[in-house]
Amino acid sequence: MNYNKxxxxxxxxxxxxxxxxxxxxxxxxxxPEWIKNGFDNNTISFCExxxxxxxxxxxxxxxxNFFGEVKRIQLKGISKxxxxxxxxxxxxxxxxxxxxxxxxTKFKEVMDKAYEAVISDESQLEQSxxxxxxxxxxxxxxxxxxxxxxx
Length: 151
Hints:
This protein is mostly helical and 151 residues long. It has one domain (37-145). The protein is built from 9 helices and no strands. The radius of gyration is 17 Å and the shape is globular.
């Protein structure tokens, strides 16, 4: 009897995840202007919803490893670390493939779009990179706030 109760609970959670994913296409909701021009209320709402979604399948360490690399680039300066920044895209591809979860795939797709927004205008590279970091930090904060897994 207890087994059936646990099974029903897991199925409800899976259905909730499916509904969340189908009702929110985070990739199409992302706006490059958030990286180019800065945040607005829609950015924060997006980060909250996306962070909550990621909390149901991505570990904190997966996001923090990526965030740590971004912060390392920031410390040395984006102008000196362009090649390291360009390597973020393949590192995300590796992360998504290694984890093989829909949340890591969505994370990769959204961050790829944010990455493209940073490199789209060389004259605004510094500011766009700063906005990229803030965007990632907001996602990470909401991921943790919504109970993102430690392992």
